């Protein structure tokens, strides 16, 4: 136990020193294994663990989904989606902000990364809202919370990583994320309309012109069809997530080439970005596996499961403690770091309580999503502040009412698992 405490302290020190979470977990996990087994056996475990975790076939989906997003972003398709949504509902009071949320759903289904979605929204939607006299507080908050939809709406990279770490079906996780994602988007829309009708932060936009809206939507139709094809292939059992991701890359390449919106330089940059992001994620997965192996050898996980099996605490209380811990972690860490640190202990605990792994994955993902908005870290708020030049304090003030809605949605998912499991249950029949 003393060794375990020392390892945890070392992990905390490395993280405080801003060592990347993957390397911090890899270093501490290796040292822990060496202390537990000896240096030679620890290297043997390290070698096997790193190979097994990084060579998993399902990891193929990660670079493919990232590349699909990079191609569509480089090909200007994401910006056109924002413009199309604004042309349909931007004339209502608060309509531009609602359109931004709608565009965020489309972006989430393409990008899979919350920070990338927030950056795209900050560059495209925020200037438009500012031009129509929206308050900076509301406009910056909307692009921040809209970006978090990419964490839940498939093909979410966070869901892929959760599936790899816990060996849960990624296809079912993707399908399970659809209703919670749309429910969150509707909740954000309700908050926007409430703010628009009770304050002067969100005036009406330009008058609605049907021909203009149709024209703006013309370029988005192929993107929507691609989303339906990718998700439909997984839902119908026609393709695995990796195969659907390959379909998405091919479809996105055809779209940007047909619309002549991508150059060789942009294509090269997209591939490079996808490679860098993939290496980072695979390294996190592999180093998390090393740390998980150390926890297994210390029997900490076994002791925790024994405690869960013998405790008189209600199941709901234990799940609540896990959620609270994840929310606190979200104040200081990004979503992949939280998953890699928490799942080795939290997932076995939830399974010991007979939780559905798909439901638990969506709940965890939703909790991590909230962490992207909470101070002091609030990664999405920082991205929006850097892009829009709005003070961070102003953005966090604007986010507060949306945080309330996010927590309401989380409570609904906890109280009614059928919201999450309805589509996966249909899928498995």
UniProtKB/TrEMBL annotation:
<keyword id="KW-1003">Cell membrane</keyword>
<keyword id="KW-1133">Transmembrane helix</keyword>
<feature type="domain" description="TRAP C4-dicarboxylate transport system permease DctM subunit">
    <location>
        <begin position="8"/>
        <end position="419"/>
    </location>
</feature>
<dbReference type="InterPro" id="IPR010656">
    <property type="entry name" value="DctM"/>
</dbReference>
<comment type="subunit">
    <text>The complex comprises the extracytoplasmic solute receptor protein and the two transmembrane proteins.</text>
</comment>
<feature type="transmembrane region" description="Helical">
    <location>
        <begin position="57"/>
        <end position="75"/>
    </location>
</feature>
<feature type="transmembrane region" description="Helical">
    <location>
        <begin position="274"/>
        <end position="297"/>
    </location>
</feature>
<dbReference type="GO" id="GO:0005886">
    <property type="term" value="C:plasma membrane"/>
</dbReference>
<feature type="transmembrane region" description="Helical">
    <location>
        <begin position="26"/>
        <end position="45"/>
    </location>
</feature>
<dbReference type="Pfam" id="PF06808">
    <property type="entry name" value="DctM"/>
</dbReference>
<comment type="function">
    <text>Part of the tripartite ATP-independent periplasmic (TRAP) transport system.</text>
</comment>
<protein>
    <recommendedName>
        <fullName>TRAP transporter large permease protein</fullName>
    </recommendedName>
</protein>
<feature type="transmembrane region" description="Helical">
    <location>
        <begin position="220"/>
        <end position="238"/>
    </location>
</feature>
<feature type="transmembrane region" description="Helical">
    <location>
        <begin position="95"/>
        <end position="126"/>
    </location>
</feature>
<feature type="transmembrane region" description="Helical">
    <location>
        <begin position="317"/>
        <end position="342"/>
    </location>
</feature>
<dbReference type="InterPro" id="IPR004681">
    <property type="entry name" value="TRAP_DctM"/>
</dbReference>
<comment type="similarity">
    <text>Belongs to the TRAP transporter large permease family.</text>
</comment>
<feature type="transmembrane region" description="Helical">
    <location>
        <begin position="138"/>
        <end position="164"/>
    </location>
</feature>
<feature type="transmembrane region" description="Helical">
    <location>
        <begin position="399"/>
        <end position="423"/>
    </location>
</feature>
<keyword id="KW-0813">Transport</keyword>
<keyword id="KW-0472">Membrane</keyword>
<keyword id="KW-0812">Transmembrane</keyword>
<keyword id="KW-0997">Cell inner membrane</keyword>
<feature type="transmembrane region" description="Helical">
    <location>
        <begin position="170"/>
        <end position="196"/>
    </location>
</feature>
<dbReference type="GO" id="GO:0022857">
    <property type="term" value="F:transmembrane transporter activity"/>
</dbReference>
């Amino acid at each position: 136990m003393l060794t375990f405490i020392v390892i945890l302290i070392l992990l905390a020190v490395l993280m405080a020193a801003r060592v990347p979470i993957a390397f911090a977990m890899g270093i501490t996990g290796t040292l822990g294994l060496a202390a537990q087994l000896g240096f030679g056996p620890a290297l043997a475990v390290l070698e096997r663990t790193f190979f097994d975790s990084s060579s998993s076939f399902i990891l193929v989906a990660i670079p493919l989904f990232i590349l699909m997003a990079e191609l569509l972003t480089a090909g200007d398709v994401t910006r056109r989606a924002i413009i199309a949504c604004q042309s349909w509902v931007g004339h209502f009071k608060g309509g531009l902000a609602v359109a931004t949320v709608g565009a965020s759903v489309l972006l989430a289904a393409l990008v899979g990364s919350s920070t990338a979605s927030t950056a795209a929204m900050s560059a495209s939607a925020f200037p438009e809202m500012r031009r129509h006299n929206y308050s900076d507080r509301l406009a910056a908050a909307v692009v921040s919370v809209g970006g978090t939809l990419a964490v839940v709406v498939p093909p979410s990279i966070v869901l892929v990583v959760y599936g790899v770490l816990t060996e849960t079906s990624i296809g079912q996780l993707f399908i399970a994320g659809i209703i919670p994602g749309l429910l969150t988007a509707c909740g954000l829309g309700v908050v926007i309309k409430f703010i628009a009708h009770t304050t002067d932060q969100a005036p009406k936009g330009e008058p609605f012109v049907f021909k203009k809206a149709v024209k703006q939507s013309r370029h988005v139709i192929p993107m929507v069809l691609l989303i339906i094809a990718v998700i439909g292939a997984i839902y119908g059992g026609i393709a695995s997530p990796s195969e659907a991701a390959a379909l998405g890359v091919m479809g996105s390449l055809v779209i940007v080439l047909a619309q002549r919106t991508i150059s060789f330089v942009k294509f090269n940059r997209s591939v490079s970005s996808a490679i860098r992001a993939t290496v980072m994620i695979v390294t996190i997965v592999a180093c998390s596996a090393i740390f998980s192996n150390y926890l297994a050898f210390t029997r900490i996980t076994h002791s925790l499961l024994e405690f869960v099996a013998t405790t008189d605490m209600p199941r709901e209380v234990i799940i609540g403690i896990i959620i609270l811990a994840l929310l606190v972690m979200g104040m200081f860490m990004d979503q992949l770091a939280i998953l890699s640190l928490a799942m080795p202990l939290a997932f076995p605990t939830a399974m010991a309580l007979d939780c559905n792994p798909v439901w638990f994955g969506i709940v965890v993902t939703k909790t991590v999503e909230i962490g992207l908005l909470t101070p002091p870290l609030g990664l999405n708020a920082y991205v929006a502040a850097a892009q829009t030049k709005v003070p961070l304090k102003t953005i966090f003030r604007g986010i507060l009412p949306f945080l309330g809605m996010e927590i309401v949605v989380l409570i609904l998912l906890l109280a009614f698992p059928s919201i999450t499991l309805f589509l996966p249950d249909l899928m498995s029949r």
